[in-house]
Amino acid sequence: MPIAGLLFVLGYLYRLVLVVYKAMESWLPIHSAAGFAVLFLLSLVIVVLGCFFVGLIASRSIAMQSTIWIESNLLKVFPKYSIYKDILTGTLGGSNALPSLKPIRVEVGGVTRLAFETSRRPDGTVTVYFPGAPDPWAGFLGEVSADRISQESMPFSEAISHLEQLGRPPRKLLEDPGEERVE
Question: Is residue 142 within a helix (H) or strand (E), and if so which, with residue range?
């Protein structure tokens, strides 16, 4: 996936280089490898500066409010948006990019299930998403009392991977950290 993303960005940058080249061709002929490299670096600088200014705008309160509005309306049209957003934020990490679904363990009928906490109410009831396997997004919602929940230390992306692989190969994920495994 990272290679595909890199190729996409490089393809976009290449198209930008061609646009800049067409604009500069009449007064700055670039017909050598060195000239093309300078043109490529200039285009890269344009992209970096563009990202910087978009980041500045996005950090303002009006941009944050419009982002919340866009996301809430996007959820109505594309329900899996929040799932994909959590996958990306879990992968990218950072202090500002934390997934909204928190991996937890839930005791259900004598079985501990890996689940995701979606919200908590003041009365102690926790809304929980119970994912399916191998497709974690084919699951169901439930409400359980907080005393049936224990925190899970694995990150969101690792929990998704664990479900997609039907619990294999890193078996240690759901084991008690203090418990020794016998093979």
Answer: strand 140-145
pLDDT band per the 50, 70, 90 thresholds, residue 15: confident
Lookup: tokens for 32: 């050598």
Classify each residue of 48-81 as buried b or exposed e, where b means 16 or more C-beta atoms within 10 Å of its C-beta. Answer: eeeeeeeeeeeeeeeeeeeeeeeeeeeeeeeeee
> Does the model's pTM come out above 0.85?
no
**The tokens of 130 are what?**
């119970």
**Predicted confidence (pLDDT) per residue in 46-101, tens digit:** 778 877 887 777 777 676 777 777 777 776 777 667 667 776 665 555 555 555 78
First to last CA, the chain: 35
Structure tokens belonging to residue 119 = 């919200």
**CATH number of the domain at 102-174, out of 1.10.10, 2.40.50, 1.10.8, 2.30.30?**
2.30.30
Alpha helices in 25-60 (DSSP H): 33-58
Residue with tokens 């190729």: 7
Element spanning 19, H or E: helix 2-24
